[in-house]
Amino acid sequence: ERNLDWFPRMRAMSLVSSDSEGEQNELRNLQEKLESTMKLVTNLSGQLSELKDQMTEQRKQKQRIGLLGHPPPISVNPQQPA
Predict the structure, then answer these.
(1) Is residue 5 a part of any domain in this protein?
(2) Domain tally, the chain
(3) Where is the region Disordered (predicted)?
(4) Residues 6+ apart with CB under 8 A from 15
(5) Could you read off the pLDDT of 7-34 as tens digits, one per residue?
(6) Which domain holds residue 15?
(7) 29: left (phi over 0), alpha (psi -120 to 50) or beta
(8) What pLDDT is recorded for position 12?
């Protein structure tokens, strides 16, 4: 009859399953990389926040030292205009 409808024509089960498995593996790999990157970003954000807090504290300490450690000189013999 020359009817070739039964022939897979690039739609064989093995081709379809291997393509979808490859895509699923690629999606899994991308998901793992995304999760790893998100963990790194979270970790770096925490470290940056800690560093910011430390810098703020150091500035406060330097301001306190500046205010308390070196009082401005007081003039003992002020000159009076003649």
Answers:
(1) no
(2) 1
(3) 54-82
(4) 8
(5) 767 666 665 555 677 788 899 999 999 9
(6) 10-66
(7) alpha
(8) 62
